[in-house]
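Justification of resources, computational component.

The compute hours requested in this renewal are based largely on the per-chain cost of generating structure records like the one below. Each record pairs the submitted sequence with a full structure-token output. That output is archived, and it is also reused by downstream analysis tasks.
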Amino acid sequence: MKAMYTAHATSTGAGRAGHVKTDDGKLDLGLSMPTSMGGDGKGTNPEQLFAAGYSACFHSALKFIAGQKKLDTTDSTVAADVAIGQRDDAPGFKLAVTLAVALPKLDQAAAEELVQAAHQVCPYSHATRGNIDVDLKVTGAA
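The structure output for this chain reads:
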């Protein structure tokens, strides 16, 4: 792969209760565990950062494919829910993602086809395929 861009971020402190910062300073955040996992919930957490990244990346892939097919993605949204829990098959933790995609200018069938195509080209989808459960929920025009 010939890299087009490389992001650089460093975590310091106590991991989920530490700090994360990018080398350019555009992201500079305190981290904390969610209250549901015993933390104080005052900072962000890796799952929120992953949800933000995945939703933005998937939306970009969606717009890319829609542009090629000349489909109207006006007012489209991609919301990502990233859940973390203990694995059932071994010690450790696992993620699960739900992507809720709204395409109000497309009929349901066209919306579903576009989302499946975006799921094939999105780098986050490619990286997670076969590793975590990704549930795609698609809403087209009523």
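The chain is about 30% helix and 25% strand. The chain has a mean pLDDT of 96.
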